[in-house]
Design goal:
Blueprint lengths: L1 E4 L1 E3 L5 E3 L4 H8 L3 H11 L4 E4 H10 L5 H9 L2 E3 L3 H13 L7 H12 L3 E4 L12 E2 L7
Parallel strand pairs: 1-4, 1-6, 4-5, 6-7
Antiparallel strand pairs: 2-3
């Protein structure tokens, strides 16, 4: 199983942590046949998952007119809930990576990946490559 996470732009055009925000999801992957092929054919949609943190971020960033389409898209993913183990790992990371100033969503996503033994597919490798225990997915098109 692969956990998805990406960077996107907020309404003011500034980069922010925001997992697969609906509008940005398509702008990120639109036209990138390597990524589309990786997600659809190499990994397979049934093997993709998102955290409940991701779901909340997507809902927060969507327009009302996107509600039905967004809900339909989210329902296609395996979802990972936050449990006690993830919360404990999250708190350890927030304390353990003070020098790196790990973001709250990034820490929850990393904790989710570690606690569920998932690889993390992200275009923001630099935000996770220093976190002990995170297994970053290496796309086939980069090998």
């Amino acid at each position: 199983m692969i956990l998805l996470w990406s960077k996107s732009e907020n309404k003011h055009g500034k980069e922010q942590d925001n997992p697969l925000q609906f509008r940005s999801f398509f702008s990120y992957f639109k036209g990138n046949t390597n990524i589309i092929n990786e997600l659809d054919n190499v990994i397979g949609f049934d093997n993709l998952g998102i955290s409940v943190i991701t779901v909340g971020e997507i809902y927060y960033g969507m327009k009302k007119s996107e509600k039905l389409t967004t809900k339909t898209l989210i329902n296609q993913f395996n979802k990972y809930l936050i449990n006690k183990e993830i919360c404990i790992k999250f708190m350890e990371m927030m304390l353990g990576y003070l020098d790196n100033r790990i973001g709250i969503p990034d820490a929850f996503i990393a904790a989710t990946a570690i606690c569920n033994n998932l690889e993390l597919y992200t275009l923001s490798i630099q935000d996770f490559n220093y976190i002990e225990g995170v297994k970053l997915y290496k796309p086939h098109y980069l090998q």
